[in-house]
Write a structure and sequence with these properties.
mainly alpha; single chain
């Protein structure tokens, strides 16, 4: 519009009215952009806090499950040892019974 208007000498070369329009647009757009950025930063902060909290909860659950697995493994090891000892005792008693019955 300014280029066509230049032939009519409506808005001379540095396009003062066009520059004024762009400056006006920048003057009202900049605060809106900053406001949107601030709101987005607040949302990001809340999301990060929730994510951190969720991560901590998951880590605590994982640690509890790991402790439970350790307890189960220790219990299984103890049962295996007891089973081995009982099997050895049964084998010893069986040998003693065979020896007394044979002799």
């Amino acid at each position: 519009m300014n280029a066509v208007g230049l032939s009519l000498h409506w808005d001379p070369y540095p396009f003062i009215l066009l520059n004024l329009a762009f400056s006006l647009q920048a003057a009202y757009a900049a605060p809106l952009i900053l406001l949107a950025a601030t709101r987005q930063a607040e949302r990001d902060k809340k999301f990060a806090a929730l994510t951190g909290k969720r991560h901590d909860e998951m880590e605590a659950r994982d640690e509890a499950a790991l402790d439970e697995l350790r307890k189960l493994l220790d219990g299984n090891t103890a049962l295996t040892k007891a089973d081995k000892e009982l099997t050895e005792q049964v084998a010893k008693l069986t040998r003693e019974i065979h020896a007394k019955l044979s002799g």
